[in-house]
Amino acid sequence: MVKNTTGGTKTKGLARKHQRQTNSTLIIPTNELEQIVCVTKLYGNGMCEVFNESNQKFIAHIRNKFRGKQKRHNLITVSTIIMVGMRDWEKPFKNCDVMEIYSDNQIEQLKQLPSLTLDHVLHLRNNHGNAFKETNDFDFTAEIEEEEIEEVKHLQEFTMETIPDINIDDI
Predict the structure, then answer these.
(1) Is the separation of the CB atoms in 64 and 45 below 8 Å?
(2) What CATH number does the domain located at 27-126 have?
(3) Which distant-in-sequence residues (6+ apart) come within 8 Å of 24 by Cβ?
(4) How far apart (Å, rounded) are the C-alpha atoms in residues 51 and 59?
(5) Which tens digits make up the pLDDT trace of 138-161?
(6) Three-state DSSP class for 19?
(7) Closest Cα partner for 50 from 66, 65, 34?
């Protein structure tokens, strides 16, 4: 048994018998129901919002394999790239299940594969989960309009003479 050198609560759960074996094989989608998506929003209760390559929105359900003791190895946050499996009994597809969580090294390997197109998914990841383009509705200029100049002049005309003197003895 591993000697507990760090101490503290729940350190028994860090024993080697509970550690997940890391598998270096890259898992890629094998049929049309498996897709690589990017997480854009976490809903809680084991659900998250994901977008695929064609910018369709789905609700991904996080299975128990990725929760509990194994959560520290499979942390899902906003802008995480994951592989999901669509539920074939739903038409149109609305829900899906998380099948694989990709690390940064695995994402670099996925980029090298010519059979996968991940442009939109990687764009979402780089924009931290923002699914839509930001529009700038404001134009910032250094020009001052005449109305603003008139307001400033009106404010400068205010003087202290218009306020009556206050006698402290009257208070």
Answers:
(1) no
(2) 2.40.50.140
(3) none
(4) 9
(5) 666 667 677 777 776 666 565 556
(6) coil
(7) 34
